Amino acid sequence: MRKTTTLRAAAAASAALLLATACNSQRGQDDKDAAADGACQGQQTTGITDRTIKLGGIYPLSGPASAYGTISKGVSAYFKHVNDKGGIDGRTVVFTVRDDGYQPPKAVEEARRLVEQEKVFAVFQTLGTPSTAAVWDYLDKRKVPQPFVATGASVWGTDDNHPWTTGWQPNYIAEARVYAKYLKEEKPKAKVAVLHQNDDFGKDLLGGFKAAVAGSGIKVVAEESYEVTDPSVSAQMTSLARSRADVLLNITTPKFGSQALAADAKNTRWNPLHIVNNVSSSATVLKPVGFKNVQGVVSATYFKDPADPQWADDAEMKTYRDALRKYAPDSDPANQFNAYGWAAASSLHKALDAMKCPTREGLRDAVRNLKDVEVDMLLPGVTLSTGPADAFPIETMQLMRFEGERWQLFGKPVDTRKEFGPLAK
């Protein structure tokens, strides 16, 4: 991880002693005392004061991926709930949401606005691989934290040249490994047809899947891609059906996920095991297709499904539902994307609490030093862990199958770090 000039200066013996004292202190006043004594001197405090923390998020509130826009409502509801409870370490969170329409140039424009005009402390969440890739060079040069991006591209955790950016959700290669493990056990001779988005998102998951099944009896026999500007994927689905594959791996964003599921349901002559990637597993994707038409579809997850009755009495789920009804009454508490936003915001709360210095550098270092941190909205057995060489907080997922009107978890959580080892850089 790169060090700033001021951090190198702080490595002097007297400053190091002060920093060590701050490391062992309690949050709150002890941090302020440490900062006053000079341990955090010279680090960036833009966007954070004793009373407020200014955060910005960039989401597709419009455009082809607008289904994801509601994630920002889950995030906002979490921060408003926390603010009503006294804030984070006594600081009120000011969360500003910008719309990029899932267009990378617009994402750059909005990132500049958040940093240069809004003066945010961090850009928490940029949604989508294309948008995140478009802005991370800019944020890195400005030394602005970009924690817990809403995309699972593997590059967010394997690129040493961008220490200010970290992922959050399981990376797409980890997710692909879970599906590969499942097929090796259940359909070891599977012939797989793949529909994927023609960008780093689609290629990352497909590449991870191919690598994970290499040397096994599982073969990818057909591939079709689409562009985010395409009106539909009907032609691609027709082509894939000709392969007569017995497994369909659906690597899509919500709009196209719904289309692929609907096309699969209509084609009664082709009945593959349908695996849909996590980002298109929300009920908002499945419901338009008709629940009766998506029975048996398989996916994987890592956070609690608000539509699953097994969490009805869960304390965090109750808090989430109450907060969403209070602060985002126009949103659906059963929508998984809202729960995703809540879980991601709760994770950032943990990282902010762990800062040794209330500075941008402090947050950058905190998100890279998480040790089995529990977040109440994540599934049991799923925690946040990072290190200097590992910026993937979550690499454990559990399979689920759609039955009746909801997803049913099955099997045990799969820790892909233990099953397959760390990703190569």
From TrEMBL:
Domain Leucine-binding protein: 52-403
Keywords, alphabetical: Signal
Endpoints of the signal sequence: 1-25
Regions crossing the membrane: none
Similarity section: Belongs to the leucine-binding protein family.
Protein name: ABC transporter substrate-binding protein
Organism for this UniProt entry: Streptomyces aurantiogriseus
